[in-house]
């Protein structure tokens, strides 16, 4: 059953990559990345137990913590980019009117 | 079954690598690169390299994404497509690939216990680690004791790279800022207005630091050690910087202190080596430190790993602060 | 079956080639750093593929070491463990240089910077 | 024995949820519905798989670690989804609404 669960996780990872490739917008790709991180944690836990080395679960713990940071960095970047673009447009509009 | 898992993840790695290179939006490309590193780390784990997977997890998915995002916000997030001469590069690349492909046909297949790599040196390390050093993690034993010279070199390289980033970014551009300071403050403010993110993120920071301590000091018994712990500590500070604004993380972890800490880490490493020499043994021969060689090795590895962790943490935080606090021009 | 055992090496070559292509063809300096990262990962994969021993496990003892227990080769792991952290440090140095280029030239495309160098 | 059966059942349902959610991410029409589908894999599927794994381990350090992983994922994944949805909405990604579709299909 562990193996079956592992296969299911692999299939969903592949589907997440497919969404990332198809994804029309930027946010679809962020979604794929976020989903992919969770799937990796699951895969690592399952593989650790399949190998019979539960002491390697540290890795999955590290992933669970680190993945969040990556998503936050991406979100901050998008937000700052949008803010910068809005600023630029405002400045240009001001420049035209004055 | 594990072989199948390996094949599947490797195929996904190849697909993701192509997607990374093809996408002309650099922001999307860095996200693909994050996925690429996650996949790579799971693959390392499937290939029995737990320590490497832990380091790749901490560095690739967290630190590298943060740094790429910081760099992209200072440069441009779109790549301009130019149809240049592509024939020559493609030919060169194809020839390189073909030569390597022919070379692999002679390689031993994956997992062959009779492969030449497994015949020399490595069995000695596996056999002698319990006798000489008596810690369960053979990787840490080799990293910090048997091949301590290598690791010292790597730590100095990391230190040098940190100094390099600082000196490259210490130049002030000639052009004046085209954005007012008020708008600038807005740009580096971070995610402060997201109350939910701040609360949950702040919950994670102490856990991450604690986990980093576990990886640092428990690295002799389980996967871990100074390199991965340093990356985890740095990731915790980066999380703080992202949530509260990079100016605050630079205030909490000032660059001057960080550069001293990085130097201190290198000094601890080399200092242990010199102390061994002063006590009449070879450089980095920890047996000099105590009468019982196993205890001496234990404490030697502890101190050296501490130095490594200090340098890696300080250098990564330094790089993050330097890039994230850079004003956009 | 023997050929299937070489799959890891083929993927490593593929990654190497993709990374090299990105470094050669792409004019954007940040994109080149990404290509360099892929190239680097290819080398990591080569080393880690070598360490696998069939029937072995990760090189960490659990309890008392017993006779006949097989472990993966720890030596390539040590080399790559340090190389990963060195890799990120060097990548960030490259990114810092790209940032400086952008500040001086206003662009991170090789074609633009070349043109400006020729003009001056 | 009973525990093994329960754990198998949980792993099976969890795996089913993970795959169904992933298919939803492919099949759904717009970003917000896709997010809705992916949250199934990230909370319910993840939780079932984790509890299934946990039950195979008995009382040990591994149990605690699995529990901790489940808790952290349960904290972070929905928060990340929230932040993503919020950012998408602010930057102007519009949800696809049913009546718009009707208007499109009507001549």
TrEMBL record, chain B:
* Pfam families assigned: MbhD, MbhE, MnhB
Entry keyword set = Cell membrane, Membrane, Transmembrane, Transmembrane helix
Coiled-coil stretches, from where to where?
none
Q: Which domain of life is it from?
A: Bacteria
Span-the-membrane segments of this chain are 7-33, 53-75, 87-105, 155-171, 195-215, 227-246, 258-284, 296-324
* Occurrences of domain MrpA C-terminal/MbhD (ranges): 12-75
Q: How does it sit in the membrane?
A: Multi-pass membrane protein
One Gene Ontology cellular component term attached to this UniProt record is: plasma membrane
Q: Which residues form the MrpA C-terminal/MbhE domain?
A: 116-175
Q: What is its main location?
A: membrane
Name all Na+/H+ antiporter MnhB subunit-related protein domain ranges.
196-317
Location(s), subcellular: Cell membrane
Family (UniProt): Belongs to the CPA3 antiporters (TC 2.A.63) subunit B family.
From the Swiss-Prot or TrEMBL record, give the protein name. Answer: Cation:proton antiporter
From TrEMBL, chain C:
Q: Please, which domain of life does this record's source organism belong to?
A: Bacteria
Keyword vocabulary terms for this entry: Cell membrane, Membrane, Transmembrane, Transmembrane helix
Instruction: Identify the main location.
Output: membrane
Q: Which Pfam families does the record associate with it?
A: Oxidored_q2
The membrane topology of this protein is: Multi-pass membrane protein
Q: Where in the cell is it found?
A: Cell membrane
Q: Where are the transmembrane segments?
A: 6-24, 33-50, 78-99
Q: Name one GO cellular component term.
A: plasma membrane
Question: Record's Gene3D superfamilies?
Answer: 1.10.287.3510
**Family stated for the protein in its record:** Belongs to the CPA3 antiporters (TC 2.A.63) subunit C family.
Name of this chain's protein: Na+/H+ antiporter subunit C
TrEMBL record, chain D:
Q: Pfam families, alphabetically? A: PhaG_MnhG_YufB (PF03334)
Annotated membrane-spanning segments are 6-28, 40-60, 66-89
Keywords assigned by UniProt, alphabetized: Membrane, Transmembrane, Transmembrane helix
Mind telling me what this protein is named?
Sodium:proton antiporter
Give this protein's Gene Ontology molecular function annotations.
sodium:proton antiporter activity
Species assigned in the record: Orrella marina
Is Ribosomal protein set as a keyword in this record? no
Organism superkingdom:
Bacteria
């Amino acid at each position: 059953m562990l193996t079956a669960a592992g296969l299911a996780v692999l299939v969903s990872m592949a589907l997440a990559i497919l969404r990332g490739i198809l994804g029309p917008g930027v946010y679809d790709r962020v979604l794929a990345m976020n989903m992919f991180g969770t799937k990796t944690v699951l895969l690592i836990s399952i593989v650790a137990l399949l190998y019979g080395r539960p002491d390697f679960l540290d890795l999955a713990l590290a992933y669970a913590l680190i993945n969040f940071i990556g998503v936050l960095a991406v979100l901050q970047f998008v937000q700052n980019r949008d803010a910068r673009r809005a600023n630029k447009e405002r400045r240009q509009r001001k420049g035209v009117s004055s | 079954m594990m072989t199948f898992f390996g094949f599947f993840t490797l195929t996904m790695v190849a697909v993701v690598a192509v997607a990374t290179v093809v996408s002309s939006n650099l922001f999307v490309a860095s996200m693909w690169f994050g996925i690429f590193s996650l996949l790579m780390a799971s693959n390392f784990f499937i290939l029995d390299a737990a320590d490497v997977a832990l380091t790749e997890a901490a560095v690739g998915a967290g630190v590298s994404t943060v740094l790429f995002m910081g760099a992209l916000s200072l440069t441009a997030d779109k790549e301009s497509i130019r149809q240049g001469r592509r024939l020559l590069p493609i030919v060169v690349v194809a020839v390189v690939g073909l030569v390597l492909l022919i070379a692999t046909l002679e390689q031993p297949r994956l997992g062959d216990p009779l492969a030449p790599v497994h015949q020399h040196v490595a069995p000695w390390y596996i056999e002698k680690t319990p006798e000489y050093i008596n810690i369960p993690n053979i990787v840490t034993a080799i990293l910090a004791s048997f091949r301590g010279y290598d690791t010292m070199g790597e730590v100095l390289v990391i230190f040098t790279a940190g100094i390099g980033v600082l000196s490259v970014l210490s130049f002030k551009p000639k052009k004046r800022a085209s954005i007012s300071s008020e708008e600038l403050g807005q740009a580096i403010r971070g995610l402060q207005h997201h109350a939910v993110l701040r609360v949950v993120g702040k919950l994670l920071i102490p856990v991450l630091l604690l986990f980093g301590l576990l990886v640092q000091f428990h690295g002799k018994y389980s996967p871990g050690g100074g390199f991965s712990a340093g990356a985890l500590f740095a990731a915790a500070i980066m999380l703080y910087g992202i949530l509260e604004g990079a100016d605050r993380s630079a205030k909490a972890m000032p660059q001057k202190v960080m550069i001293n800490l990085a130097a201190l880490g290198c000094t601890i490493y080399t200092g242990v080596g010199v102390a061994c020499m002063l006590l009449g043994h070879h450089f980095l021969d920890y047996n000099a430190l105590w009468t019982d060689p196993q205890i001496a090795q234990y404490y030697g590895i502890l101190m050296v790993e501490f130095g490594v962790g200090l340098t890696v943490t300080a250098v990564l935080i330094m790089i993050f602060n330097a890039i994230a606090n850079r004003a956009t021009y | 079956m023997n050929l299937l055992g070489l799959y890891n090496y083929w993927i490593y070559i593929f990654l190497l080639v993709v990374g090299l292509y990105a470094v050669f063809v792409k004019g954007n300096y940040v994109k080149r750093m990404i290509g360099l990262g892929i190239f680097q990962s290819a080398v990591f994969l080569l080393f880690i593929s070598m360490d696998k021993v069939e029937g072995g496990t990760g090189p960490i003892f659990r309890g008392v070491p017993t006779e006949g227990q097989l472990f993966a080769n720890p030596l390539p792991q040590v080399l790559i463990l340090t190389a990963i952290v060195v890799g990120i440090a060097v990548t960030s140095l490259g990114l810092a240089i790209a940032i400086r280029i952008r500040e001086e030239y206003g662009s991170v495309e090789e074609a633009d910077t070349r043109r400006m160098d020729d003009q001056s | 024995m009973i525990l093994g059966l329960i754990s198998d059942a949980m792993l099976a349902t969890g795996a089913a949820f993970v795959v169904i959610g992933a298919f939803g991410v492919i099949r759904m029409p717009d970003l917000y519905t896709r997010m809705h589908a992916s949250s199934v894999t990230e909370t319910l599927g993840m939780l079932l798989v984790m509890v299934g794994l946990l039950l195979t381990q008995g009382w040990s350090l591994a149990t605690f670690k699995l529990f901790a992983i489940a808790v952290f994922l349960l904290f972070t994944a929905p928060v990340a989804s929230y932040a993503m949805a919020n950012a998408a909405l602010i930057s102007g990604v519009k949800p696809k609404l049913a009546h718009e579709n009707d208007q499109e299909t009507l001549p």
